[in-house]
Amino acid sequence: xxxxxxxxxxxxxxxxxxxxxxxxxxxxxxxxxxxxxxxxxxxxxxxxxxxxxxxxxxxxxxxxxxxxxxxxxxxxxxxxxxxxxxxxxxxxxxxxxxxxxxxxxxxxxxxxxxxxxxxxxxxxxxxxxxxxxxxxxxxxxxxxxxxxxxxxxxxxxxxxxxxxxxxxxxxxxxxxxxxxxxxxxxxxxxxxxxxxxxxxxxxxxxxxxxxxxxxxxxxxxxxxxxxxxxxxxxxxxxxxxxxxxxxxxxxxxxxxxxxxxxxxxxxxxxxxxxxxxxxxxxxxxxxxxxxxxxxxxxxxxxxxxxxxxxxxxxxxxxxxxxxxxxxxxxxxxxxxxxxxxxxxxxxxxxxxxxxxxxxxxxxxxxxxxxxxxxxxxxxxxxxxxxxxxxxxxxxxxxxxxxxxxxxxxxxxxxxxxxxxxxxxxxxxxxxxxxxxxxxxxxxxxxxxxxxxxxxxxxxxxxxxxxxxxxxxxxxxxxxxxxxxxxxxxxxxxxxxxxxxxxxxxxxxxxxxxxxxxxxxxxxxxxxxxxxxxxxxxxxxxxxxxxxxxxxxxxxxxxxxxxxxxxxxxxxxxxxxxxxxxxxxxxxxxxxxxxxxxxxxxxxxxxxxxxxxxxxxxxxxxxxxxxxxxxxxxxxxxxxxxxxxxxxxxxxxxxxxxxxxxxxxxxxxxxxxxxxxxxxxxxxxxxxxxxxxxxxxxxxxxxxxx
Length: 705
Known about the structure:
single chain; alpha/beta; Cytochrome Bc1 Complex, Chain C; Immunoglobulin-like
């Protein structure tokens, strides 16, 4: 049964009754969609070769590189499920978070859920990054695809941020560093009334409310991924949300295997008085620590803005600005008979059927959405009447040229063999290597085409009927094909399972074949082409053995997990200074300065409305707070201005002094105006530790242990 049956009306008969269309004027191929096309094509070629290598043993349905987006969704569901399960054991508080996870046995149910949550998130990030790389190298960010790219970058940032908040919730040394870097960046923004970083100077003052806010974000933000996916897939047709169930089981099994073999563990518990030295961390999510630890808060925002802007704007600075008319498909309404096949086959949902505008007795006509069309040409292969297609590669014009060529060669007594090769196999029309393809296909006249799906079965029938000895259609071997579904529809049309179907009653089906090109084994294409031209019997296709598939799956799993685990638990050295420090953090109110009364206005000269003639309040401000710090006889004095738009708030500040390990005599004098507060004591400090002294109104001085 065909997937889409041809309508009752015979469109081909109606189109033939109209007679041939006038010859198209023709136009040059459109410019490449992106800059650096050759470099991108070379990178995409490497991944295509990896595709074909894997698919020697694995069917495409089980090739993880062919289903990265769907695999990411499966891993997201696994991470969500394991995260929800982990709430049975996890305590969301600064005081108990670390111990609630550290107390789980590595291979207990809770420990396994914790490891599954971590490694599914890591493998998810790996899939997202490879998916982004494949999309970039396949040039799938230009023209109508800008929305998918921009939303994909936003989703990547969201996934990373969710992981960043997740590591905060462990509250170990990793969480300590990322919390300090995050708060340092937030303090740059005019969000909080006073610097938040000073609250992270000691364990006692770490705000529990902020910890709960992070926990809430970690739980809620995954809902944003669902909304982002709707936008990401908005301009694609038939995009599967989940991979083949066998691939899903494979991914889940791999994650559980990693959880059992290499359980996830905590780093040492967070101690705000200690500057962590060396530990292992998950570089999939925590790699910014290597940068942010060396930057100020403003530098963090600048680096983030530059990176986000650069990635988000790829469709504008790397893609070419091409007029849509030079590459997009166009409808010839006079030859459209409402068969709807083009709208079914379009991989990007760019074709819709709208009410008729020319008065012909058909219910609808095709219409192209210019915001979706990428100019792949698959619609041309779906149209029996050649009423839709690419102006620069007009199907009627190409048909005339090929038929004329076949007739001429038959008249010379040398019936030709034709090979129509997808130009995307070489990275695009402008890079098509005709010489190389002639060597791969000896005895064939090679013609590049935009996509294997561009070929209309009727064209093949006519060429064979006029004397062509063979018609070979070569599709690109990439699982990230530029036109997405050309290699899917072409064999289905030739097999008669999708309309428009090849009709064996009009041409010998033994003279036509569709072959997917394997760049690692070009001899397979050469052999298939030779058999087709000589009508030799093709050998029975060798099936994949179950043992080979299992071994290939194990090898791929081992390589992927080794990479994931190596990056997930790699060494990190904290770049901060190892010096001991004394930290004085305070909030104090300076004395009120004398009020300055507003200048009185003579009632006779006051021109304001009566209801506005009120007495003006006195202008009140506070004086600055002076901090005098003496360490072993060395004196340092600083002045801190009051907060507030009118300088009527408290003065808030922090003073840090590096010290050598050992004992030191420290004295603090806090001047708020007429009154002063003093504190002095001999303290002992150790390398990588900081001693913190707090002052709060109403509580006085407090030295943290």
